[in-house]
């Protein structure tokens, strides 16, 4: 996972790309939780959203590490 990704000649850190993917997934998860009314049971929404983001980021990193070639 160490290294950069070449996007049209610009080298972008791999972690930055993974963080962007996790953020997009996090937006979808937050929308779903809002639609089903889950946030009524959450004490502090901001901290909960941060925890979800960290969890999704960890999952994206594990999946990318497992399926990306070295």
Automatic annotation (TrEMBL):
<keyword id="KW-0472">Membrane</keyword>
<feature type="transmembrane region" description="Helical">
    <location>
        <begin position="50"/>
        <end position="68"/>
    </location>
</feature>
<keyword id="KW-1133">Transmembrane helix</keyword>
<keyword id="KW-1003">Cell membrane</keyword>
<dbReference type="Pfam" id="PF07869">
    <property type="entry name" value="DUF1656"/>
</dbReference>
<keyword id="KW-0812">Transmembrane</keyword>
<dbReference type="InterPro" id="IPR012451">
    <property type="entry name" value="DUF1656"/>
</dbReference>
<feature type="transmembrane region" description="Helical">
    <location>
        <begin position="6"/>
        <end position="29"/>
    </location>
</feature>
<protein>
    <submittedName>
        <fullName>DUF1656 domain-containing protein</fullName>
    </submittedName>
</protein>
């Amino acid at each position: 996972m160490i290294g950069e990704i070449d996007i049209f000649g610009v080298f972008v850190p791999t972690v930055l790309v993974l963080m962007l993917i996790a953020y997009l997934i996090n937006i979808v998860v937050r929308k779903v939780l809002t639609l089903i009314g889950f946030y009524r049971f959450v004490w502090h929404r901001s901290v909960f959203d941060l925890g979800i983001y960290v969890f999704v980021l960890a999952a994206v990193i594990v999946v990318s590490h497992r399926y990306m070639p070295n």
